[in-house]
Amino acid sequence: MSTTSTGNDAGPESASAARGTSVIVNVLQVIRCFTVEEPVLGVTEIAAQVGLHKSSVSRILATLEQEKVVERDEASRKYRLGLGLIAVAGPLLAGLDVRRIAMEDLRELSETTGETAALNIWDGTAAVTVEQVPSRRQVKHTSVLGSRYATGLSASVQVFMSHEPAERVRALLDSGRITFDSPTDGPDPAVYIERLATVRRDGHAVNHGETQVDEVGIAAPVMDHRGEVVAAVLLAAPRYRVPAERVPELAAHCQAAAARVSQRMGAARP
Q1: Rounded distance, CA 220 to CA 199, Å?
Q2: Are the C-beta atoms of residues 82 and 70 closer than 8 Å to each other?
Q3: Domain limits at 83?
Q4: Residue 110 lies in a domain
Q5: Based on the domain organization, do 103 and 230 belong to the same domain?
Q6: pLDDT digits (tens, 9 = 90+) for 118-159
Q7: Residue 68: which CATH number?
Q8: Which member of 97, 108, 123, 201 has the lowest number of beta carbons within 10 Å of its beta carbon?
Q9: In whole angstroms, how large is the CA radius of gyration of the chain?
């Protein structure tokens, strides 16, 4: 009978590295508990979400509070994210050239259409909002910077997925990293891949109330000098202001803005 190593002969350095990795994972899990929907959380709530003992969560939060990554709400004694997190993310945001380059065109797109213009980047499994110019109108659709979208019918997700190989698309769907609002509502993978081919051909994607019944999203890709997609320009609007016949007009504005940003990124003219 052959035997298989279980890793028990690993040295102290390997064991120490494993412990260090688990600590980092736990810290990240605690930070990710704070969301737009639940910005203030207590130790018990976080412990239940991450599956750690309350004493462990309390120690993690105490350290994060020292570093100002979280701060305590004096009234409830619960925690919220602190300004120290912005200091950590600051260099990343500053290093996103596309964010800086796109700002002028986002403002122009918002002014021209009267709707919210945003810039999303792809982290491999989700579209992340990194910049936004809100509509001046009283009723509008906006998102918090850093919001992640992993819904297959989201306009920006469609744009990024349309430039992924078919096998990568299938892998993301099979793993559940890209989902649909309801498992029964998700299209057949082959049908979805056909939809993505249309998005790539047309140069824009539309989400006309498919993820949120009262919202419309239209997105177009931003390319760099290598011809690769580095971002997506997104228009977000209340659905009542965007009947189907207005979609082509907004899509044209969105594509034009994305094309201008692409040219500034060194992309060849279409």
Answers
A1: 9
A2: yes
A3: 16-87
A4: yes
A5: yes
A6: 999 999 999 999 999 999 999 999 988 888 999 999 999 999
A7: 1.10.10.10
A8: 201
A9: 22
- Does the pTM surpass 0.85? The reply is no
Number of neighbours of residue 108 by Cβ within 10 angstroms: 16
* Cβ 181 vs Cβ 150: under 8 Å: no
Long-range residue pairs from 187-194, CB within 8 A, at least 24 positions apart, any chain: 192/152, 193/166, 193/169
Structural domains of the chain, count: 2
Triad 244, 246, 248: Cα angle to 5°: 95
What is the distance in angstroms between the CA of the first residue and the CA of the last residue of the chain? 64
Task: Assess whether 72 and 121 both reside in one domain.
Answer: no
CATH code, domain carrying 110: 3.30.450.40
Residues in Cβ contact with 192 at an 8 Å cutoff, skipping those fewer than 6 apart: 152, 169, 173, 186
Q: Which stretches of 154-203 are DSSP H helices? A: 155-162, 166-175, 189-202
For the stretch 16-39, pLDDT in tens is 555 556 889 999 999 999 987 889
Residue 245 in contact with residue 231, Cβ under 8 Å?
Answer: no
Indicate if 101 and 234 belong to the same structural domain.
yes
